[in-house]
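Task card 7
Instruction: Convert sequence to structure tokens.
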Amino acid sequence: MGPAFIAGAWQFGPGNLTSAVQAGSSFGYALIWVIVVSTALMIMFTDMSVRIAIVSRSSVVETVKQTLGRPVGTAAGIGVFAITLMFAVGNAVGAGLGLSLVLGGSPVWWTLACTAVVAAVLLTRGRYGVVEKVLLAIVATMAVCFVVTAVLSRPAWGDAAAGLLPTIPEGTGLLLVALVGTNFSINAAFYTGYASRERGLRRDQYRQTTLADTIPGIVAPGVMTALVIIAAAAVLGGDDSASLAQLAGVLDPIAGDAGRIIFALGFFGAAFSSMIANATAGGTLLSDGLGWGNQLSSMRVRAGIVGVLAFGALIAAVAGGSPVQLIITAQALTVVVAPLLGVLLVILANNRRLMGELRNRWWQNAISAIGLLAILATCYRLITSF
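Output:
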């Protein structure tokens, strides 16, 4: 799996699952089109980040500094860090809730325990490989169950197809913003450039990377999210106030009572893996933006990683109200800084001197313009929803 699969794994976290199940249970199939459009736009911005990384001699943030000035690069690094703080809240809440549904006890204590384990995994060499395999198995099991449930629950496939036509049902509010924020994640696209540089991708590998990684790596979580909406619409359709325990019932048709355990473990696995990717990106981009380097071995990068994890755990511990609503609100807030990051990617991808033959073509700029308009529209909707 390459850089885009890392971005896709980051996307398919508890915020994505929660907002998708909530969309299906509250509005049926009507919001499937949001996932399709978001996935297409995500592919374009991820592709730009990969191309920028291939031609750059430095990290993406350093390239921004060299091209547009140090203040702009610093703002980009701090901006991604701010977005990861919002994701950290959803991940922390999701990890604690997932384990509490399986093992009982207070979600807050499980959140704190998960945060400590993630910090240990990230700060201890040689341990992530084993954890990654376990999480992959858990999330894959849940994913298979969603696929089978989407078929066996006998959804109204005609209505699901109609959901591909853009409509905005009344009352979507922050949920629509959260769906866009998790499926058209500019910060994940931005960080893909770092993962691409880490892989040492070359110009002659661009086409192969696009076909084998960028497109499937982004399409996979998009398809999964659409199937989650379909399954939730068929099983929980009409329940617009479902708790997380009720949302876990979406897998009952395929696995019975065990379906709730599978959902809870998968929810935890998605949250835990996203905690790792999100904290790593936040610490790396903050340090790089401030000119402190971007190596994971750096103490300053590690301090940023711990800061992201601590923020998520703190908000999860002190915030009251519905955990589901807290996750959706946190995911919606991730779009605040997205316009800046999107504009920077478009500017760099059009820089003739930097990009050479890999610069954006007219049709790529046309899709990018649609993406920027979509980001601005979701920001406007976020402001008007409060």
